[in-house]
Design goal:
By secondary structure, the chain is an all-alpha fold. It has helices at 3-16, 32-47, 51-64, 68-84, 88-101, 106-130, 135-147, 151-164, 171-181, 186-202, 207-219, 223-236, 241-253, 257-270, 275-287, 291-307. It has 16 helices and no strands.
């Protein structure tokens, strides 16, 4: 199971939680002592493995509890029983409740990772069993190979997808990424460039493909081409912070300092803790005669670097 798939599943599952029935539904009032006593009985049933009986009781008990620690244990038991009975919607509701009411709790974070990963594995197994020849099955397999650094195998799976459907979005982009990951060589770079360009023919709105082409040109010192692609990426996705930094860096390298100010200002607003953004903006300000602003950005760069030691400053 690739981290990419598990991460994607986490986003999909949590975004869907709002549409699910809430665990904490309206129930008759009861005393705190009675609710806690009932909770202990329900938790005990769950601990003995009697989840078929315990789960509906745990769900009802949750809404009655005011003691946070007891509620914590009840919802934990709910998650474990729901997963053991393959009631994934209930498990997700309970996980979401834990994440909301007990943020940053290490055990909550641990079981969230564990059970969402398990859900991902179950979904992957179902996909392989029910639609083994689908492009989605090949894509999942390719992502798994990518996560293991098996680039040739990943590329082969992506090629199978294109044989089935040449216009599936994102596949040429993935092939370009695999080509770059396979090793630094002129052949790999040219192959990646070809794949990114092909992706943009299919999907002209793919900001990541535009950015990746910009990076190829930036590393080659071809500033005008790099600037054009980074500019397009930034226009396609205004939240793509890296595109603003890369655009600003390329403009600085091309000595187009006045033009570099705007994208770099946008970048430091989005990512104020990155020393690189402040460093590049300081250069742009300095070369355009804004000495005080440059000094301020250098101070912010030093402060950011102190909070994140070891960070490289791009030149």
């Amino acid at each position: 199971m690739s981290n990419y798939f598990v991460s994607s599943l986490l986003v999909i599952v949590l975004c869907g939680v709002a549409a699910l029935p809430c665990l904490s539904q309206t129930v008759p009032k009861t005393s705190t002592a009675d609710a806690s006593a009932a909770a202990e009985r329900d938790i005990d049933l769950a601990a003995k493995g009697q989840c078929t009986e315990a789960l509906p009781l745990l769900k009802r008990t949750t809404a009655r509890l005011t003691d946070k620690q007891v509620k914590y244990r009840v919802v934990m038991a709910t998650v474990k029983c729901a997963m053991s009975l393959s009631q994934e919607e209930t498990a997700v509701q309970a996980l979401f409740l834990l994440r909301r009411e007990f943020p940053h709790d290490p055990e909550v974070l641990y079981i969230s990772t564990h059970y969402l990963s398990e859900m991902g594995n179950r979904a992957a197994q179902e996909l392989a069993a029910t639609a083994p020849n689908s492009y989605q099955a090949h894509e999942l397999e390719a992502e798994a190979f990518e996560s293991q650094g098996e680039w040739a195998e990943a590329a082969a799976e992506y090629q199978k997808i294109l044989k089935q459907n040449p216009n599936v979005l994102g596949i040429h982009f993935r092939l370009g990424r695999v080509a770059l990951s396979s090793g630094e060589s002129e052949a790999n770079t040219e192959e990646a460039k070809k794949e990114f360009e092909q992706e943009l023919k299919i999907d002209p709105t793919n900001a990541a493909a535009e950015f990746s082409l910009g990076e190829i040109f930036r590393r080659a010192g071809q500033w005008d081409d790099a600037i054009a692609h980074f500019s397009t990426a930034a226009k396609l996705d205004s939240g793509f912070a890296e595109s603003f930094l890369a655009l600003g860096m390329s403009l600085v390298s091309a000595q187009r300092f006045a033009e570099a100010v705007s994208p770099l200002e946008k970048y430091v607003k989005i990512v104020p803790g990155d020393p690189a953004g402040h460093y590049q903006l300081a250069i742009a300000y300095d070369r355009t005669g804004h000495k005080e602003a440059a000094a301020r950005e250098m101070q912010l760069q030093r402060e950011a670097a102190a909070k994140a030691p070891g960070g490289d400053i791009p030149h």
